[in-house]
Amino acid sequence: MTDEIHQPDRLSAIFAQGRLTARVFQTGRFCGAGTMSGPTGPGHLHLLRAGRLAVRGGAVCGGAAGSLVLDGPAALWLPRPGEHSLAALDGDGVDLVCAEIDLGAGSPFERALPDALRFDLTPEDALAGALGLLFAEAEAGECGRQAALDRLAELVVVYLLRRAIRGMARGTALEPGLLAGLAHPSLGRVLALLHEDPAADWTLERMADAAAMSRSSFAATFHAVVGVPPGEYLQGWRLQLARSRIEAGRTLKQTAREVGYASQAALSRALTRRFGGSARAFLRP
Q1: 8 contacts 196 by C-beta, under 8 angstroms
Q2: 3-state secondary structure of 29
Q3: Which of 57, 144, 190, 226 has the greatest number of CB atoms lying within 10 Å of its CB?
Q4: Peptide bond into 73 cis (omega under 30)
């Protein structure tokens, strides 16, 4: 007899482990050109309400030199830091909102997302509606403006992830990885459970039960869709969480209990194998 499994939210389970934050720094008319970001720091979100905008940089074109052109309304999300430039192609400028996006320490999305996600919008799209709210807030100039803009940008990121999970980004199929796993009707449920409760006793059999699949079918499907075996994914998630929590000030002993290791010594060895050097290097001085 299998355990009764509840149905956690695929995205909320991730964000509960690391705080998504946005900081809007550009609203309204954008004229000319500008360069943004560097090798470190947050990612960037660019929301184009109207006009044509050229975006240049390695991450935009899969690591190759080049550019793409956005025709508003459109959204471009660059989840990781990387230098890129924007240039308005309309003589009188474009309507643009730009925000820095921090997915939160330890988020599995830090490495799982593509270098760039582009979304062409339509007037009836929920994303286009959120874009309208952002510009309305930016133009109103009411008290609490910055806080409202930042929260609305966070909402846009959730909408973007929903669309990416559905495999709707530019109408292409998702490559193997976390997004493809979350989009899978059975694996998405298992991944949400792993993200929500990483310290649980997650045997292959228990994961397969949660997916309503046989162990062999589950293991093969998980590897094919997510790109790594289920045990390897779980270990990577636990260690990613452990590192971020230790860096935030938790002790090795506390962290081991929270992420599912039997002892701080076992966690320390695993962190060393994963990241190199001593696990104590992550501790705050």
Answers
A1: yes
A2: strand
A3: 190
A4: yes
Contact 198, 234 (CB under 8 A): yes
pLDDT by residue (tens digit) across 31-77? Answer: 877 787 766 778 899 999 889 999 988 667 555 556 789 998 899 99
Residues linked to residue 43 through DSSP beta bridges, in sequence order: 101
Are the C-beta atoms of residues 204 and 218 closer than 8 Å to each other? Answer: yes
List Cβ neighbours of 237 (8 Å cut-off, separation of 6 or more). Answer: 108, 194, 195, 198
pLDDT grade, residue 226 (50/70/90)? very high
| Predicted pLDDT at 169 | 37
Alpha-carbon distance of 28 to 140, in angstroms, equals 11
Q: What is the pLDDT of residues 165-196, one digit of tens each?
A: 876 334 455 578 888 899 888 999 999 999 99
Q: Which residues of 74-86 are buried (b: 16+ CB within 10 A; e: fewer)?
A: bbbbbbbbbebeb
Q: Report whether 267 contacts 242 (CB < 8 A).
A: yes
Q: Exposed, middle or buried, 56 (CB in 10 Å: 0-12/13-18/19+)?
A: middle
Residue 29 structure tokens:
């008319």
